[in-house]
Amino acid sequence: MPSGRVIASHGRRFVVQDGATSVSCVIRGRNADIACGDRVQYCIIQDGAGVIERVEPRTNLLYRSDGARSKRIAANVDLALLVVAAVPSFREELLIRCLVACEAAGIPAVIVVNKADLAQTDALVGHLQAYRALGYDLLVLSAQGDLSALSARLRDRTSVLVGASGVGKSTLLNALAPHARAATAEVSQALDAGRHTTTSARLIELPGGGALIDSPGMQEFGLDHLTADQLTQAFPEIRSRRGLCRFHNCRHLHEPGCAVLAAVQAGEIQPFRLHVYHRLLFRLC
Ligand SMILES: Nc1nc2c(ncn2[C@@H]2O[C@H](COP(=O)(O)OP(=O)(O)OP(=O)(O)O)[C@@H](O)[C@H]2O)c(=O)[nH]1
Ligand SMILES: [Mg+2]
Ligand SMILES: [Zn+2]
Question: Exposed/middle/buried for 33, CB within 10 Å: 0-12, 13-18, 19+?
Answer without folding.
Answer: middle
